[in-house]
């Protein structure tokens, strides 16, 4: 199934990462990093019930783009290179 059939995206948007989630545990997080060096850690439970119109997970500066999205727990150490 095409992503466009799951939720609407505009012509200026594109999917750069997908993460499979089976359980929205309270100590689980989604880590996101951009080309411009911005990093965001969001509790996974924030994504448990997303509206059909979608959810803005990270507000990107113009010209920046998402390069990674990974699951993590509150016990994980993260190193970005």
TrEMBL record:
Gene Ontology molecular functions: ATP binding; DNA binding; DNA topoisomerase type II (double strand cut, ATP-hydrolyzing) activity
A GO CC annotation given for this chain: cytoplasm
One annotated GO biological process: DNA topological change
Listed transmembrane segments: none
Pfam family, any one: DNA_gyraseA_C
UniProt cross-references to PANTHER family, sorted A to Z: DNA GYRASE SUBUNIT A, CHLOROPLASTIC_MITOCHONDRIAL (PTHR43493:SF5), DNA GYRASE/TOPOISOMERASE SUBUNIT A (PTHR43493)
UniProt name for this protein: DNA gyrase subunit A
Organism expressing this protein natively: marine sediment metagenome
